[in-house]
Specification:
By secondary structure, the protein is of the alpha/beta class. It contains six helices and eight strands.
Length: 146
């Protein structure tokens, strides 16, 4: 039986400097950080600006974070045929980030991560229930792995 390791991208494997902006009347009126963005409710006339999250530059400049060394070790074990495992990445970023994320990992030594093992769920509007969507993907992966 094959085992699987599933990692979240942001604040698990990498940390980035991108910001989330609030737009009103075509102007940036507020900058949200990781903590304040989770519970922010848009007011009338406001929209989210996720442009830094979809910009490949911010992915390229990401810094390895907490679990990155674990990912490197798992990838090495796959290369050496020490473990029969699959690696999956989940991210709340949108589909346009899949290739830049894959390139980032490859440049940083992760060679055994197929592009189709990167799951992106973002909509760039902030309308998706991220924990719920990640739960659906985890259920789907559970069925694939078994």
């Amino acid at each position: 039986m094959k085992n699987a390791y599933i990692f979240d991208f942001d604040y698990t494997l990498v940390i980035t400097n991108n910001k989330l902006y609030i737009i009103k009347n075509d102007k940036r009126i507020k900058v949200l950080d990781r903590n304040t963005s989770k519970n922010y409710k848009l007011k009338s006339g406001e929209t989210f600006d996720f442009s830094e999250f979809t910009n490949p530059y911010f992915i390229e400049k990401a810094k390895p974070y907490l679990m990155f060394n674990t990912l490197l070790k798992l990838d090495l074990n796959i290369s050496l045929n020490v473990e029969n495992i699959d690696i999956y990445i989940l991210t709340a970023r949108d589909e346009s980030c899949k290739i830049p994320i894959h390139k980032y990992f490859y440049r940083h030594g992760i060679k055994n991560l197929p592009k189709n093992h990167i799951f992106t769920i973002g909509d760039n509007k902030g309308e998706i229930n991220v924990p719920y969507e990640k739960g659906l993907i985890l259920k789907k992966l559970k069925n694939i792995i078994q």
